[in-house]
Design a protein that fits this description.
The protein is mainly alpha-helical. About 80% of the residues lie in helices and about 0% in strands. It is built from two helices and no strands. It is rod-shaped, with a radius of gyration of 17 Å. The relative contact order is 0.21.
Length: about 80
């Protein structure tokens, strides 16, 4: 039986969303650590991109469980 939002597998979407957020955070953190450890000269936009990946990854990892794990299943 299809729900209000279709046939959505909420647990799978929640797990994948959290893993995506953690992955983005790790890419940003490891990239910044590598730049600082090696002393590489990179343009400012690359450092800003890595910082944005960290913030976006954190936001996705924190918001996804609430939206797909709690809110949407309760509204069906």
């Amino acid at each position: 039986m299809a729900g209000r939002y279709g046939n959505i597998d909420y647990p799978t979407i929640t797990k994948r969303g959290v893993l995506l957020g953690i992955g983005l955070f790790l890419i940003g953190a490891v990239g910044e650590a590598y730049i600082h450890l090696t002393g590489a000269q990179v343009p400012g936009w690359e450092e800003q991109l890595l910082l944005d990946l960290e913030f976006l990854g954190t936001a996705i990892a924190l918001v996804t469980p609430f939206v797909f794990g709690i809110f949407l299943p309760l509204t069906e």
